[in-house]
């Protein structure tokens, strides 16, 4: 299938729009964690740093997966299923490793970094790792 | 794992897309198997072997 700008826009626009909405929601949540900073700055910075991650993750986890499942009768037999599992395992290991690293370094320095980092950041890290890993398996390992 | 899928597909004059459709998998799956980057599950290996009228061990080599 020939990849054109039109086909890219057609397949990615939903992820981009929904991703932006979720990233803005994430930014709004971050305002409660940073009450001393201007809310508009927190929302914009948090939204635009997480938007790409959330958009790619939505595409990989939801829209691409739905298309694959629809077009292929036995999706679990395909290589996409193997990529999905491998990316999931990588994301899980990265998320757990990242949290242990923060906890370990924080413990050594007697600083609690877990509270400011929080579950939302760990989730973004996991989503980002998953999406990046899946894209690497799909397009990078030729 | 090495395999003779590309060779068998060429013998049967099938494109990757056509074989993928016959097997009920994506074209990317066929490409990945041919390049040795993806080892198919046992059900898929049986389907491939049955399609080409041969055995799994004739197509796939450890």
**Number of domain modules of chain B:** 1
General form of chain B = globular
> What's the gyration radius of chain B in Å?
10 Å
* Mass-distribution shape of chain A: flat
Give the number of helices of chain A.
4
- Number of individual domains of chain A: 1
Biggest sheet, spatial arrangement of strands of chain B: 1-2
Radius of gyration of chain A: 18 Å
Show the largest interface: A-B, 13 and 14 residues
Reported CATH architecture of chain B? Orthogonal Bundle
Spell out the CATH superfamily of chain B: lambda repressor-like DNA-binding domains
Distance between the termini of chain A: 17 Å
- Average pLDDT reading of chain B: 92
CATH classification class of chain B: Mainly Alpha
- Share of helical residues of chain A: over 70%
Helix/strand/pairing class of chain B, anyone?
mainly alpha
What does the main sheet of chain B amount to? 2 strands, antiparallel
How would you portray this structure in words?
The complex is a heterodimer of chains A (142) and B (62). Chain A is an all-alpha fold and 142 residues long. Chain A has four helices and no strands. The longest helix of chain A is centred in the middle third of the chain and has 33 residues, at 39-71. The two termini of chain A are 17 Å apart. The mean pLDDT of chain A is 79. Chain B has a single domain, classed as 434 Repressor (Amino-terminal Domain), CATH 1.10.260.40. Chain B is built from five helices and two strands. In chain B, strands 1-2 form a two-stranded antiparallel sheet. Chains A and B meet through helix 3 of A and helix 3 of B.
Describe what is shown at a glance.
Chain A is mostly helical. Helices cover 84% and strands 0% of the residues of chain A.
């Amino acid at each position: 299938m020939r990849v054109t700008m039109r086909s890219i826009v057609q397949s990615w626009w939903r992820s981009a729009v929904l991703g932006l909405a979720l990233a803005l929601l994430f930014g709004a949540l971050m305002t409660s964690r940073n009450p001393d900073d201007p809310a508009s700055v927190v929302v914009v910075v948090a939204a635009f740093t997480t938007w790409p991650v959330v958009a790619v993750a939505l595409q990989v986890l939801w829209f691409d997966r739905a298309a694959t499942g629809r077009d292929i009768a036995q999706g679990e037999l395909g290589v996409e299923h193997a990529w999905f599992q491998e990316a999931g395992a990588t994301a899980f290991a990265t998320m757990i490793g990242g949290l242990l690293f923060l906890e370990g370094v924080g413990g050594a320095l007697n600083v609690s970094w877990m509270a400011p980092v929080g579950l939302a950041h760990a989730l973004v890290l996991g989503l980002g790792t998953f999406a990046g890993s899946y894209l690497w398996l799909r397009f990078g390992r030729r | 794992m090495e395999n003779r899928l590309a060779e068998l597909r060429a013998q049967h004059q099938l494109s990757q897309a056509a074989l993928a459709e016959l097997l009920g998998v994506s074209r990317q799956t066929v490409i990945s198997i041919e390049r040795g980057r993806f080892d198919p599950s046992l059900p898929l290996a049986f389907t491939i072997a049955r399609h080409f009228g041969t055995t799994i061990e004739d197509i796939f080599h450890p």
